Amino acid sequence: MIWLDTLVQGILLGGLYALFAAGLSLVFGIMRLVNLAHGDLIVLGAYLILGVMHVTGLHPFVAVLIAAPVMFGLGWLLQTHVLNRVLGDDILPPLLVTFGLSVVIQNGLLESFSANSQKLTAGAIEAQSVQLGPISMGVMPLLTLASAVGVIFLLNQLFYRTALGRAFRATSDDATTAQLMGISPSRVFAMATGIALVVATVAAMYLGTRANFDPSIGPARLLYAFEAVIIGGLGSLWGTLAGGIVIGVAQALGAAVNPEWQILSGHIAFVLVLLLRPRGLFPRAND
Amino acid sequence: MTGAEMPILSLSSVSKSFGALKVTDDVSFELAKGEALGIIGPNGAGKSTLFNLIAGNLRPDQGSVFLDGKDVTRETAMQRCSSGIGRSFQIPQPFGHLTVYENLLVAARFGGSVGAGEAPALCMDILARTGLAAQADKVSGGLPLLQRKRLELARAMATRPRVILLDEIAGGLTEGECHELVATIRQIHAEGTAIIWIEHVLHALNSVVERLMVLNFGKMLMIGKPDEVMAAREVREIYLGIEA
After folding, report:
1. Do residues B38 and B239 touch, judged by C-beta distance below 8 A?
2. Which phi and psi angles does A138 have, rounded to 5°?
3. Which of A11, A122, A218, B108 could form an S-S bond across to A43 if both were Cys, CB 3.0 to 4.6 Å?
4. Considering only CA atoms, which of A134, A163, A102, A141 is closest in space to residue A245?
């Protein structure tokens, strides 16, 4: 029964990784931009929620509602004034710029908040759990997974049911032709990055309530997110959820064998998927 | 053309070079509201480049493009689409991951500024008129060439243009298919949309257009009534390769 429990805990952990990855997947899918600052932007979101809680005394679940629009605006401005200027046929400039952004955010946070660990305190809900037969599930991990499913469901609705979503997909297919159809790629990209940072803020809330964070943990979150996107298959949002769960389960299983193996097991699972299915579990049909 | 009325589109001494090669050389013409103009010329004469200059994919080195008397030379392709220039590509470029219907919906909602309420009906109507109704929910990346060409026309129509640029959409079609296409284009024309049509299938072209332009080495060789242009000695020599 311990294995079943480990599996369930792994799936729940996968929800957090899927939340890390959803924003990255969205941005990559639409503009082929690998945002190396994604992990640091999540950490920035966590500090922003912390700041909102500090000033207003609100619960993290409410504070995130204030932080999310701010992060949307930040994403919009970042894309409009920085990233749109480096997007082009050459993939190196956006990589360099987002790498630089990652360094700037880490050091900016270090300067402003010191290297001390912080945590978003959610109160009694953190200790609550539900018992399902022999398995005990924490309420917060359950909410994390439910949020991941919810976020990915909503993103899919946006993609396939709305005019904005069709503009996302059309621009992703062919930005030049999209312009001839009256779409402004730079505005579409700005919306996409804004939405990606809203998702990152949701991820930040669960990251900050689940464990301690400090300015240096962004790059490791980016790595998990990146692995989840690749495992799922580029461009597939449900694939990204599956990818997050694969890493979560691998880490939980590794940790059950030996706690030192937790992180390594996740990376091994990633390498195995790359070896067996180089295009990921759910690749798009005609790429 | 009535002299008093403002032309819908006019080009004034438009030139464009790629390196040393002058692909568009001092081209000037006016297109009246609702007029249909055909463009012919040998391969490499600069026909598609002229479309790129009109649609805004390319900026001219010299000269200006006017839409409704307004200088749009500095406007982007997106802005020109919204002001009423629609175009189809010689090599079909559908949004491959979108369905046929979604391709039109994107064009209608963004390029045509059609509201969410009326867009579906407009798109279904265009699909019916272009013979694509049965393909509406197919992913456009997998369509055969003929249907991709029809999609080019349909998508350009969905932007609700006042000037539609058609780039060799009849090429490679059977006689019957070509006949259907001409009927569709005639209908668009009858509804008052101005048309510029680049085409090698001359009988199809000449059954629709009121004027014909001949391009050669980027220069406008002639413009006039189709029968007069086709009868002209230099056109027969240079374009048709016939010794007159």
Report:
1. no
2. -65, 145
3. A218
4. A141
Q: Is the pLDDT of residue A92 over 80?
A: yes
Domain ranges within chain A, ordered by starting residue: 2-114+133-276
DSSP line for A13-61: HHHHHHHHHHHHHHHHHHH----TTHHHHHHHHHHHHHHHHHHH---HH
pLDDT confidence of residue B244 = 46
Strand B163-167, strand B62-67: pairing: unpaired
Task: State the architecture of B1-84+161-244 in CATH terms.
Answer: 3-Layer(aba) Sandwich (3.40)
CB contact residues (below 8 A), chain B span 124-163, against chain A: 139, 141-142, 155, 159
pLDDT, mean of residues A215-239: 92
CB contact under 8 A, B95 and A176: no
Lowest mean pLDDT among A61-70, A149-158, B35-44: B35-44
Cβ burial, residue B210 (10 Å; 0-12/13-18/19+): middle
Neighboring chain B residues of A169 at a CB cutoff of 8 Å: 95, 97-98, 102
Q: Which tokens hold the place of B209?
A: 């257009």
Q: Which residues of A touch B (CB under 8 A)?
A: 163, 166-167, 169-170, 172-174, 176-184, 284-286
Question: Residue written as tokens 């101005």?
Answer: B194
Cα dihedral sign, A265-A269-A274-A280: negative
* CATH number among 1.10.3810, 1.10.3470, 1.10.10, 3.90.660, domain A2-114+133-276: 1.10.3470
Closest CA to A22 of A219, A161, A172, A228: A228
Using the beta-carbon criterion (under 8 Å), do B142 and A286 form an inter-chain contact?
Answer: yes
Q: Please report where in the chains the tokens 């012919």 appear, as a residue.
A: B40
pLDDT at position B240 is 62
CA distance B236 to chain A (A): 35
Q: Which residue of A has its CA nearest to B104?
A: A181
* Cβ contact A182–B87 (<8 Å): no
- The SS3 call for residue A142 is helix
- C-alpha to C-alpha distance for A43 and A112, rounded to whole angstroms: 13
Question: Inter-chain contact A167–B76, Cβ cutoff 8 Å?
Answer: no
CA quadruple B100, A191, A38, A139: dihedral sign: negative
CB contact under 8 A, B103 and A170: yes
Cβ(B28)–Cβ(B223) below 8 Å? no
DSSP state of B134: G
**b/e burial code for range B158-186 (CB count within 10 A of at least 16 → b):** bbbbbbbbbbbbbeebeeeebeebbebbe
Top-confidence residue, B243 or A98:
A98
Given this model, what pLDDT does residue B241 score?
A: 65
pLDDT averaged over consecutive 10-residue blocks of chain B (244 residues)?
74 92 93 94 89 93 94 92 89 91 94 91 93 92 87 93 92 84 90 93 90 92 90 77 56
